[in-house]
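Internal QA ticket QA-208
Title: Verify multi-chain structure generation after dependency bump
Assignee: T.L.

Test input:
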Amino acid sequence: MDGETGKATASWESGLLAPVDRLRLDRADSPTPGLVEGTEPGAGQKSAIFYHAQSYEDLTAEAEKEAQRASEPHGSEGHDGEEFSTLVGKKSTEERLNSDTSSESRGKEEDVSSEAWRSHKKHVFVLSEAGKPIYTRYGTEEALSSTMGVMMALVSFVEAEKNIIRSIHADGCKVVFLTKSPLVLVGVSKTGQSEKELLRELQYIYYQIVSLLTLTQLNHIFQHKQNYDLRRLLAGSEYLTDNLLRRLERDPGLLLSAVTCLPLASSARDVVSSSLQAAKAKNLVFSILLAGDRLVTLVRKKDQFLHHIDLHLVFNLVGSSSSFREGEGWTPICLPKFNTAGFFHAHISYLEPASELCLILVSTDREDFFNMSECKQRFMERLSKRSAYQAMKEALKCPNYSVAQVGIPELRHFLYKSKSSGLYTSPEFPEVYQSDEEQERLMGLYQDLHSCLHHPTRPLRSFYRCSEAENLLAWVTSGFELYLCFSPMSTKALAVSAVNKLLKWIRKEEDRLFILSPLTY
Amino acid sequence: MSTRKASLTDKQAKNGTSKYVLERCASINEYYDIAFKVMLLGDSAVGKTCILVRFKDGAFLGGNFIATVGIDFRNKVVDVDNLKVKLQIWDTAGQERFRSVTHAYYRDAQALLLLYDITSKPSFDNIRAWLTEIKDYAQKDVVIMLLGNKSDMAAERVVKTEDGERLAKQYGVPFMETSAKTGVNVELAFLAVAKELKHRATQQPNEPKFKIHDYIESQKHRSGCCSLG
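Actual output:
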């Protein structure tokens, strides 16, 4: 491993990333085009679609705040905020059990389950504060009730000492705890992921559950009946959590806290957006058009922003349920980053039964089904008259691009995220990463780089790493995050010059790869 | 299109005008004379979506259980006595957490197909609760039909046909056992409802009343013949 900070940046601070004539005024004025938030390739023109602070820290900060809050009443010693912004603060209890006791305690779990169950790389458990099982990724909740009881005991035991359990490290296993009253989430991982990454994933699972029930309802239920079996209300939704966990392993969007777009000529995208904009209704807050896991366009009510987490939850709902394929779906959905207290109602339908294009109309009114249905009709009528519909269907035939288009022979794959727009772009996986295992391995490498760049105490700005199968470069500025994967034959100098070339290419293609002019109603 | 219109005016001239028949509309590619909303209700996993898919596409959704999310709205146009009847069918999620959204659309429905699973006693026991809900939220004159689904699974049966019949009689609703897998009585269930609704909407004062109970009795296939004795 070879980490370095800041050093590499100097080489490209001098040059513009794209010919001046292609840059919009405000971008050209920037002293370091592309390096400052808002001027990087892919940054939107007017306003972002998402909340502005859509960084990765955004997700974990909350947990830290809560930890801080929880420990404050007992504030035993003076602390400065900085100390608390680190994940494993001094006050957090890090229980290090030796491998003996660990294998013993895990031995009890094995009684109810097989060797195969134990060998899963990552387990996720959700339980109530009364220790009742709510969700397990593998196996059945019933069989694990005693295990979850133990987990709850650990949480309570440490809490009784006026402290918070954050993680247990034992024998190549990380056990991470996230207490989000009235729920407790536990992740058990054998992957190399950092605690912070694992915590972030648990946070996603928490939001998934909240999106099904709202936090208000959750609190209400457990206030009235502490030992309520929440599975009763979550019945039939387990697959959503299962799928979300799979996405967390495979989808760069969840890693980057960003969303990717269907590559589409901006002229066509603008027509689609304006058609959606025209099909508005009183209670309509967001109109979202998806092509599989890619955003085609998103139109929102003025001053209302969608958080990328909420959007990923919508992606997960739509992608996991075949029941929207035909007909029109109507379902309550809580967007927890928008408001944990209430439900929106989403009208979900595919533009054509066999199409990948799915329209989601989010309304505030439960009784709005027919209004939303009419909005869709109006959108379809408008759209079918334009050539943009055809262009969109054409674009769907090749929803991805090859890394060869960039023209850097050693470059195998990359992830580029524009921070100000919250959008990312990435080419299809090349030949060498065709198998699922290889793709997951590459994602794992990106995850490693990501956690180094976002290390709670010693974040890196850039990072070059050589390994047997590939060389990797990661670089973060205030404007973007970039992860590149090169063939193992390439050199560091080559990688550094490739960044410049790639950024120029992205700038050239940004009209197509990103949504530069998001609309509001 | 013009010939279709002409034939309709002919028919109307014969029948006299009915206020409902005038609601003649053209959706994107299907013409219909009259539209009704039908809702599928019942516990989770009794086969509501399967019944709908069997009726709409003639297929059986085998394999894994896929829970419906919220409610799902689909259309099917059927012929009833030479009239194109569009059934707008609400397929609902059986899960408790979707109850409030289902309630909001009860009153729009003109007919309710209430399902239980003959291999699940709890789903049958809950029928009374469903009927109470229907009374609370649905229109007063809503057409209700009770269906015992999965009649093909004779070996796992725990609810006897007579139990279903008795319950249906008690509430005065028509009843039959269906199988989304084999298709037994599925078409009949929807068609009987469509017929009843069509008769209600277009009935002339001197025309004999359509009797849904009699119609079903004359048409339905009995599945559990042995238990009927």
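Spot checks passed. The radius of gyration of chain A is 24 Å.
Status: verified.
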